[in-house]
Amino acid sequence: MKSIFFFLLCFLFFNLEAQELAVLKYSGGGDWYANPTALPNLIDFTNSNCNTKIDKNTKSVSVNSEDLFNYPMVFMTGHGNVLFSDEEAKNLRDYLISGGFLHISDNYGLDQYIRRELKKVFPELTLQEIPNNHPIYNQNFSFPNGLPKIHEHDGKIAQGFGLFYKGRLICFYDYESDLSDGWENETVHNNPKKVREKALKMGANLILYAFRN
């Protein structure tokens, strides 16, 4: 069964006409549905500026669903608790080691929960801070100083963390940045144009890196 999923992933990776992205739906009480305009806006920006052809009709997918394997990349955000069952942790693990990619955006308040749950998925792995010279910061857009700061919460610097499996970056976690807030409609957070552009460019880099790797 997994070989079929892997074949489908490979097909999706190399056929840009068929690309779709999804928001990860999880349990625990956290607002997985936060920032509803974020991903559609990011897709529109990436299609307009990076020659991609991603379906603008984004979907949600549950952690334990076989449909997860239909997407080369999924996005996850929220402010609160996250809870993966053993079945969900295994399904997410299988998805990521089969070629999938997960972007997690801490919308403030997610950190302690997502770190705990990622240990269920990959008990042998530890989130590592990604160096500024990593290719994820140097796709179509260059970020020589690493992850851009979009929203201020606790006066902490923005940090990009990742999980690496057999040398491949399979999960990117933006912390104290709020990238997905910067993708939302301008009227939601009233971010300046330059701030929104930084967030969208970094988001486009994430998509391009996931598609290329």
TrEMBL record:
Keyword Signal set for record: yes
Record-annotated DUF4159 domain positions: 21-211
Pfam families, alphabetized: DUF4159
DNA-binding among keywords: no
Keywords assigned: Signal
Taxonomy, superkingdom: Bacteria
Signal peptide annotation: 1-18
Protein name: DUF4159 domain-containing protein
